[in-house]
Amino acid sequence: MTTVPALEAVSTDSGFRRTTIERRPVGPGDVEIEIDFAGICHSDIHVARDEWGGTHYPVTPGHEIVGRVSAVGEAVTGFAPGDTVGVGCFVDSCGRCEYCTDGQEQFCTEGVTATYNTPQAGGAATRGGYSGAIVVDERFVLRVPEALDPARAAPLLCAGITTYAPFKRWGAGPGRRVAVLGMGGLGHVAVKIAAALGAEVTVLSQSLSKQEDGLAFGATDYWATSDPETFQRNKGRFDLILNTVSADLPIEQYLSLLRVDGVLCSVGLPTEPYSVRAMALAARQRVLTGSMVGGIPQTQEMLDFCAEHGVEAEIELIGADDVDAAYDRVVASDVRYRFVIDVARTLA
């Protein structure tokens, strides 16, 4: 076992404290990664504060990891010490079921092993990227292209694939009108990716306070959802709406913005169920669906796509002792647009 520095929360309201955790020895198929950067995802906050239930304390979050390979097992062929690599939302799966063999490990029928907070055979749960190093099976390690800034690439391991996957699934591209609902940590990456895919992109945000940013990121139109005229002027306009908002919304109001056969896909996870009349879908054959990240092959595809098109997250780099304050700022929507922990410089 190797002991590494880490941050952990021990209860719903404890905040984070410095500690040390153990990482397993490097096995034949393993890659050991010295972590440089770890992005803060809103999911981290939900888990650390047990807002979804099921948190296994003590918990070390972090599934937006970028670092450098420090050692590899004897059977590893795809990576070598010194490589810049990433780890996303999960670190293991059965590898045998129909979804794993199809490169959709996130749907593993035996249950995917999340990068953190998944109980292991020995009883302890997995620990994530708010730590100095991690050991991961080669199958779940991503190559980070040299064209990407490592700190700004970290959020792509969650925010990037979370938005790229549904765009690919529902055909965002030339000739398609795409609306991104919400312009936060997920939404700003979604705007960049949809624009790079060639879609006509509109931002739907509560106010116009981020309009200048949205247009700079590739949107051609920007509307405030607090203005009733937005729903009148854009009725029946969009082929696809990607909802990145975790707040409870009047979902039928947004369905009215879709064309015939239009799709509203949610990647934000509100706490309350949607209320939708069947006629709101049937009348124009609309689709209401959801999406959660993508498999390892598609995540690598996303990273390569982002490198080719210059897509990176807009970040605020913080130290390990700033995480509690960063969490509060995320909840207050006081960040443009993603916090990333400078692990290598501030956690050792």
UniProtKB/TrEMBL annotation:
The keyword Metal-binding applies. Its cofactor is Zn(2+). It comes from the Bacteria. It is an enzyme of class 1 (oxidoreductase). It comes from Kocuria aegyptia. Belongs to the zinc-containing alcohol dehydrogenase family. Residues 11-341 form the Enoyl reductase (ER) domain. Its EC number is 1.1.1.2. Gene3D superfamilies: Medium-chain alcohol dehydrogenases, catalytic domain, NAD(P)-binding Rossmann-like Domain. It catalyses: a primary alcohol + NADP(+) = an aldehyde + NADPH + H(+). InterPro entries: ADH-like_C, ADH-like_N, ADH_Zn_CS, CAD-like, ER, GroES-like_sf, NAD(P)-bd_dom_sf. Keywords: Metal-binding, Oxidoreductase, Zinc. This is alcohol dehydrogenase (NADP(+)). The keyword Metal-binding applies.
